[in-house]
C-alpha cells in the first residue's frame, strides 16, 4: 500500500481507502466492471480514489467532467449532509 500522507491523500480518501481494497494507479481497474481495459476512459473519484470507466457509469459520461468529480458512493457519504 503506502502511507496515505505520503500519497497526498485527502481526508476523505483516507477514510475511504480503509473501507475497500485500494489499488495503485498501475493496478487500478473499474469498480463497476472490474477491468482495466480502456484506461484512457477511467475516471478517478476525488474523494475515494476508486476508478470508473465513463461508459460504465449510469448514466454514462461522454467526456470527463471539468473540475473535481465524486462517485455516487462518495456523494452519499461525504456530500449529502
From TrEMBL:
InterPro entries: Zinc_finger_PHD-type_CS (IPR019786), Znf_FYVE_PHD (IPR011011), Znf_PHD (IPR001965), Znf_PHD-finger (IPR019787), Znf_RING/FYVE/PHD (IPR013083). One of its GO terms (biological process) is nervous system development. GO terms for molecular function: zinc ion binding. Its main location: nucleus. It comes from Timema genevievae. Residues 27-77 form the PHD-type domain. It is found in: Nucleus. This is PHD-type domain-containing protein.
